Structure prediction request, 695 residues.
Amino acid sequence: MSAEAHRVRGPTALGDGDLRRFWNLTRTLSATDWKVRFYGSALGYLWSLLRPLMLFGIVYFVFSYVVKAGAGVEDYGVMLLLAMILYFFFSEATVAGVTSMVDRESLLRKVGFPRAVVPLAVALVAAMNLALNLVVLAVFVVASGVQPRWTWLVLPIPLALLLVFSTGVAMLLSALYVPYRDVRPIWEVVLQALFYATPILYPIELLAAHSPTLAKIALCNPIAALIQESRHLLVGAPSLSDALGSTALVAAPLAILVGMTALGFWVFDRMAPRAAEEL
Amino acid sequence: MTDRPRDDVAVQATGVAKMFRLPTEQVSTLKERFAHPMRRQRFEILRALTDVSFEVGRGEVFGIIGRNGSGKSTLMKCLAGIYRADAGEMWLRGRMAPFIELGVGFNPDLTAHDNVLVNGVMLGLTPDQARERYGSIMEFAELEEFAELKLKNYSSGMNVRLAFSVMVHVDADVLLIDEVLAVGDAAFQQKCYEVLNRARDDGRTILLVTHDMPQVQRFCDRAMLLDRGRVVLIGEPRGVARQYTQLNFASPSERESIVRAHAPSTLEPDGVTILEAWAQNLLGPTTLFEPGERSGVVMRVRFLHAAREPVFVFTIEDERGGRLVMSSERQSHATGEHPAGAEIDIAAIFRNHLPPGRYWVSATVAEPDGGRVLASREIGHSFVVTGSGATGGTMDLPHDFSLTAAPPTQQPAHER
Prediction:
């Protein structure tokens, strides 16, 4: 036994930089989270496909045929589904993120491990769901006869940015929730507001026709910006820079995205060493 | 900054301190924060650990003892990387596996299978290794048939067994064990000892927090006594255990002096020495008692100064930490006056109604009327009560059964 001596420095967000172990932990935690979700249901994992399929079916029907919000907009149905899927991912990752540290209390109080694993595992579970939902989306895309485009190859970029942003927000919320339990109800309301403030059910053109300034403000929201760009890449809707009216303005949602993510990481990093005592 | 530990040191702590800020008024919602933005939160500072320094050699079993709230668990959590120490430096050699608050952080909503995998990885295995060892973990815990049961349906004993089994299967070089062996049935405890002994023989290092003094003496190479976050004594287990017993029986002011003295010389502050203590039956000193036999425990005491009416106490402790106390203070007759230089044997004679098992005895001499402890000593050997048919009780009361016809029942008025 010639093991090296190492200093015990107490818990941190990222641990001692052993990325392999970090990934193993995140992967294992999210795998079990994923398992718990459908435990005891007869259809099991099938639900993670069926649920969005049915939900999207309803929304698609209501907004395409009953409300006709997308009248005159090409490929409205597919755009609606894409936006919902992306927003659901953000909502799932952050809602589960809020309580993640508190939910893992027993683990945090008994084992020393890189604390950021906890919100990351939650984001990873949401990402697995996102992947399944994207499969459902692909079915809708084919069914509605959208022509394949080269821009589809670029789609992973906004998706990756969304993943990073959601993880950053989840880290921020999970850290704040440890001392302030009112973060949860507040966040639920914020999400609700954000849902309607984001051009999901309505196309951005509808808002732009009403007030171009308002449309620009709405697109400063990173979620809205990423959704707009994804719509552009998927079915050729106006790109983010077109919708904002200038390429320079793209910097605004991007800056908010980077800023929020950095803030999330910073706050989490500061809280992580004390999490076990404050839980 | 201190240097890296020497090669033969597995755990090294230097000047470790840990404080907790306890809010005197719990402000835990934002509304309260907003409602009183100017009010600074008031904190009470609890010093859980102050200047704790020690070294544990490779392959050593190191006991950490102390009363509740003395900082044992906080120290373990600092070493395990769960709490961040406020000051000082800690070094560990190799991989460490913690076993804290009777568990390794299981999730009650997951099955034993999933929990084992998660915790195996948490304690340092790769997912593949965790899967590989899953079988032997369940086998050791003797829980194979409950593998797919959610942990919330496990009894607490099963939970501890599983947690302990995970911990010993992750190949850690340093085991941090906080009060484990108090739980679980006797057979499993035996197994735990065996596996820990094997771990020690393999050169692993074990830090063991416990309240069980016989355990400390049997199992540890050295021990450390903590009191209110400070190290009182580090040394061979028997002396440390004795000091602990004394701390436990002492009044607050005496505890202060015991703690301050830091030295075993305070063990006989008033010139009373317990030279020897042993168990005996009618034939003489023994380590075996037959059930129902007339038995005795004896201490030989030397008075260095004259003493009046000293109190003699024997404490018999069983394997589960259950205690029987025999005190001369309960006797009607006085213990008399003893001149300086006198040597006497004091025996407590009893008919042995202890159930079969192993027992440890400690002898104590104290001042009368709840005064100070003058001397205290453990019997060198444990004794065993032979016989079969343990009832599981703490005492086999001598009894007769009588069976008689019940008198005609009379119903109480209010039930009519």
About this structure: The longest helix of chain B spans residues 186-201. Chain B touches chain A through 50 residues (CB under 8 Å).
